[in-house]
Specification:
By secondary structure, the protein is α+β, with helices and mostly antiparallel strands. Helix content is about 40%, strand content about 15%. The chain has a three-stranded mixed beta sheet, covered by helices on one side. Helix 3 crosses helix 5. The longest helix has 25 residues. The radius of gyration is 22 Å and the shape is globular. The relative contact order is 0.12.
Length: about 160
Amino acid sequence: MNRHRDRRRRRASATTEYSQSAPSIPGTVDPAVLFGAALPSQARRKLDQLSRQVEERLALVLTGEVDDPHVSALTLLGVEPEPGSGNLVVVLALPIGAGGEEAELALRRLDALRPYLRSEIAGAIHRKRTPNLVFRVVPAPRGPGGANDNDEEVEP
């Protein structure tokens, strides 16, 4: 069998965007050491594809299939892969005017729904493993030139 001999001949290319030599400026740190090497384009594309698939399915499930008003009121802003792990970070926005207690309540409800959401994602994607979900709730985004809390409404 040539399989083992062929494996020994092939070497993983250690090409990164960062130099592996000593830094030229004293006190600087090589970014590859801190953040790891840059992902190959195919791996990056696959992560982006997975994020889009999960985002599409979660948008449908959170708006139509979840009966919890605290979770349904959240707006899905995006899904991002967490660097160096199999986790996906789901970024959700609170409704306008919601406070810290609302964010904590929404996170607890999302944690309780995590197994259901993962099963829905598993049915929508064609992967060997379903990624773990990490939820991040942020305040409602403000539009450009939008009103802030200190503005008063003017009656005609």
